[in-house]
Design goal:
Blueprint lengths: L3 E5 L2 E3 L7 E2 L1 E5 L2 E6 L1 H5 L6 E5 L4 E4 L1 E6 L1 H7 L3 E2 L8 H13 L7 E6 L12 H5 L7 E5 L4 E4 L1 H6 L12 E5 L5 E7 H9 L4 H17 L2 E6 L5 H12 L6 E6 L5 H9 L12 E9 L29 H13 L4 E5 L2 H17 L8 E4 L5 H10 L2 E3 L3 H14 L9 H7 L16 H10 L16 H7 L2 H6 L17 E4 L16 E6 L2 E5 L9
Parallel strand pairs: 1-6, 2-7, 8-15, 9-10, 10-11, 15-16, 16-17, 17-18, 18-19, 19-20
Antiparallel strand pairs: 1-4, 2-3, 4-5, 7-21, 11-12, 12-14, 13-14, 21-22, 22-23
Helix pairs in contact: 2-7, 7-8, 10-11, 11-12, 13-15
């Protein structure tokens, strides 16, 4: 029997072309079949109908997370969290790691995530020697919040075959003491290589995907653009867990890896696959490289030096000809292309490649992307518009890292993730969290898009603030557009798939500072309720 849901007496934010607000919605099977007034929708009632009285609550399209790492987030839940309030000092962290080591078989990795050297009381990374006090029988890795930097103990360095004579990898750095010995701190590609070595089993990945999917559903996320993890096996695990239902959300999987992404891309270029291949549960997205580093590290690649260090321009991974050798054939074969590009120098490099690809092999509606596009100066935005490029900015970063941006980038921080400029230029930015780098709650991202407030209370560029409905569009319809799925998802319109969420109150009537505390009470994907609390007058499950 096909379920028929009638949602009435609500605040239905459609995100259609006119941004219409309606009162009611009808769903039959997998699809939205009608949108209108409560009276119009109730006329569709039959013996199979379940009527849900929204009592003024908001119903809107499911949130589309255009850049996160589901495998990283899920596996982090199996590790020590440095974002836990009990971890205020390195000593606190060491105690947590000791507890984790006691329950971990000898020889297996003990991991921590979410470390921030700039906010922890000690103001630094733990040393290799401090991690050795936790255990010398376990390799230990503490990953910075940005996922671009880590520190490991002596056993971890030994497993990775890193010693005094190991050269720095291209695009990375093994930090050393005065004696030339590695001190345990690994930057960018040096971290990525060891992170790959400290990988997870297939069973752990499946458990991680299940945990992550459940957590995402609770916050109203119905589609994710996965931004890569542990390589070919990780992409295959994503595909399997999506199609088997372990992951409830629709998955648009970027093709690459945290370590040596070019190897993964070349593997796929040797097949007949291309972007958009798959089904409505799992599709291949763009091929993806990393061009520079972390905005909060800071290790992004900039055209002008950091305000905090006149000799520092950041780290970049590739030369121009190297990315063109990878991306231009990918473009020619029908792949969408993208890169992690935070600094303006990295954005410039990617746009130069896209311009060349489009010139050599013109292709309609390629929708190439830029992941993050942190310092997007006006000249770069103009080039994005001309090439039809879609950026995925991360306004939620302001809430956690805004003061770090002010310190390192000065006046440039006022134009980071320039959402209003994108609107003015007609560039369809799709906002995202980059989870687990920051809080994946889309309502946190929406609030930060509106306010741009740093932890200190400073506002990073009032001129780049946007309105509520504009922010909602960027995390719904624009996300669908970035994955070529705007005809199926991203708005509440008849004929579209029933990816719908319900909030615990009216978001249009809420004060701006209340937005992060608004809760999702129901998440529906494909007409199936995958998460719900009791709604007043009518249980939805």
């Amino acid at each position: 029997m096909v379920s028929n849901y009638l949602f009435i007496n609500g605040e239905v934010i459609t995100v259609n072309q006119k941004d219409e607000i309606h009162r009611a919605v009808a769903v039959k099977g997998r699809e939205i079949i009608a949108v209108g007034s409560t009276e119009e929708i109730l006329r569709l009632r039959d013996e199979n109908s379940k009527v849900i009285d929204l009592n003024g609550r908001t119903l809107l399209p499911g949130f589309i997370e255009s850049h996160l790492h589901i495998s990283l987030y899920g596996t982090n839940q199996l590790s020590v969290s440095c974002k836990d309030e009990s971890v205020q000092t390195i000593s606190d962290l060491l105690e947590k790691l000791k507890e984790k080591a006691k329950e971990t078989p000898k020889g297996e990795w003990v991991r921590a995530w979410g470390y921030n050297d700039q906010t922890i009381a000690d103001g630094r990374f733990p040393t290799k020697e401090e991690l050795d006090t936790v255990s010398t029988e376990h390799p230990i890795m503490v990953v910075r919040a940005c996922n671009h930097i880590s520190t490991v103990n002596s056993h971890g360095l030994q497993i990775a075959s890193i010693d005094k004579n190991t050269p720095d990898p291209e695009g990375g750095k093994i930090v050393r003491g005065a004696d030339g010995e590695p001190n345990g701190l690994l930057l960018e590609n040096a971290h990525m290589q060891v992170f790959q070595i400290a990988g997870f089993t297939r069973d752990e990945l499946q458990k991680a995907h299940s945990i992550a999917s459940e957590d995402f559903a609770k916050k109203g996320i119905t589609s994710i653009h996965d931004a890569t993890g542990y390589g070919l096996s990780n992409i295959e695990a994503l595909k399997q867990d999506s199609e088997s239902g372990v992951i409830k959300q629709r998955v648009y999987a970027m093709v690459g890896a945290l370590n040596e992404p070019e190897t993964v891309i070349k593997h796929f270029l040797a097949t007949d696959l291309k972007t958009k291949d798959g089904n409505d549960r799992f599709k291949y997205g763009p091929v993806k490289l990393f061009l520079d580093g972390s905005s909060s590290g800071p290790t992004i690649w900039t055209r002008e030096p950091y305000d905090s260090d006149p000799n520092n321009y950041g780290i970049h991974y590739y030369q121009q000809e190297e990315i063109e050798e990878i991306f231009i054939p990918a473009h020619q074969k029908g792949w969408q292309i993208t890169s992690h590009a935070q600094g303006d120098a990295a954005i410039d490099m990617l746009l130069t490649c896209i311009e060349k690809a489009n010139s050599l092999y013109p292709r309609e509606d390629a929708r190439h992307r830029i992941e993050h596009a942190g310092i997007a100066q006006p000249d770069l935005i103009e080039r994005m518009k001309k090439q039809g490029v879609i950026p995925t900015p991360n306004p939620a970063f302001f809430f956690e890292y805004g003061d770090i941006y002010i310190k390192n980038y000065g006046e440039r921080s006022r134009q980071m993730y320039p959402l209003h400029s994108y609107l003015e230029a007609g560039v369809p930015a799709a906002i995202a969290s980059d989870c687990p780098v920051t809080d994946f709650n889309p309502l946190r991202g929406i609030h930060s898009a509106i306010t741009r407030i740093a932890p200190s209370g400073s506002v990073l560029g009032e001129q780049e603030q946007i309105g509520l409905l504009e922010a909602i569009r960027m995390i719904t319809w624009n996300g669908a557009h970035a994955s070529f799925s705007e005809n199926e998802t991203g708005s509440i319109e008849p004929g579209k798939l029933a990816d719908i969420i319900i909030l615990d109150r009216s978001i249009l009537k809420a004060k701006t500072d209340e937005i992060p505390s608004i809760q999702v009470v129901c998440t529906m994907i494909d007409g199936e309720i995958v998460y719900a609390e009791q709604l007043e007058n009518e249980p939805v499950i």
